[in-house]
Amino acid sequence: MTGAKLKVAVLYDVWGDEAAAAEAEAVEQKVASKKKKKKKRESKSKREKEDREEIFEALEKLGHEPFYQVLDGTQPCLTSLAKCGSDLVFNLTESFAGDDTKEMNVAAYMDLLGIRYTGGGPHAHFLAQDKATAKKMFAFHGIKTPFFATAYRGRIEHAHDVSFPLIVKPMWEDGSIGIDAASVVGSVKELMERVEYIQNEFDSPALIEEYIEGREMYVGVLGSYEKAQPLPLVELDLSRLPEGTPKIASYDVKFEKDTQAHKLTKSYLVDDLDEKTTAKLQEVGLAAYQAVKLRDYGRIDMRLTPKGEVYVIEANPNPWLSSKQEFAMAAKASGRSYTDLIGEIVELAMARYATNAENAS
Fold first, then answer.
1. Domains of the chain by range and CATH?
2. Number of H helices, E strands in the chain
3. What value does the mean pLDDT take over residues 88-100?
4. How far is 88 from 10, CA to CA, in rounded Å?
5. Among 116, 126, 55, which residue's Cα sits nearest to residue 343?
6. Average pLDDT over the chain, rounded to an integer
């Protein structure tokens, strides 16, 4: 499929008040991309671009015909997706109508309709998003992950023997939602209070996990389930967080740009590890990628302890593809430009569907 010109739908989700504005923006950007208005380009340069805009531009550079497709959580948007006529959907959705647990349903819907799309299938989204199930998969495959328990409305659904300190988070949320400084607890009282908060705030079982002291490491992986390759390591440096603040990738660290926590943390390429440790991290990342059936691209979040132990914290299908974020950083370090990266993801998806068609015949 290399070199073939494709109609690519860049699919992203909005809900509530954002929906109408996003639909208008999508139309405006399609018109702008065709007319190449200088004024439009200038206005874009004054703000940080969304990942979908960067992907759109990369697809144009590759000779494809991208267009925006918006999921606003309504039935008509599903009909529109079914009729969009794309050769491939570049799937950037993270929810449906704001419900993260329905992210897998978007992929399943496209599977039912025979729509080709990039990234994880419904199985990968389910296994990765249900953190307890993912951890059971890791354990089955011999991949070290922190001991854990799950609790919901007074019922213990699973329990290892866990010891303090613990970190408590929603079992079904992603993007560090529900994780803040109070997530790390050191007593039964704090644990009970945090579990109650998670249940009331997110209506989700609480994942109670042993807190692993160590460096926050990310391994990006590119490739099919059968044949994939790890990218160079990236670390989220949490060492500058104030004394007494848990060294965790909380929501404010990752996304709240005006907070001290965000300003004091930075992701960078790892260059201070020996070859053996680097290889171990990449091998574990690759094994975790395959254990939860990720495909095309994914990111594995891990902890490296002072003793050199590697613990997988979670797996992320379809990680954030902003050119300034960890996955693109790792791809660049591997010798790929941002445009190369987007092109490779497209080629991986198209090759998968070509292989499936051959097997079916």
1. 7-119 (no CATH), 143-210 (3.30.1490.20), 212-360 (3.30.470.20)
2. 13, 14
3. 95
4. 9
5. 55
6. 90
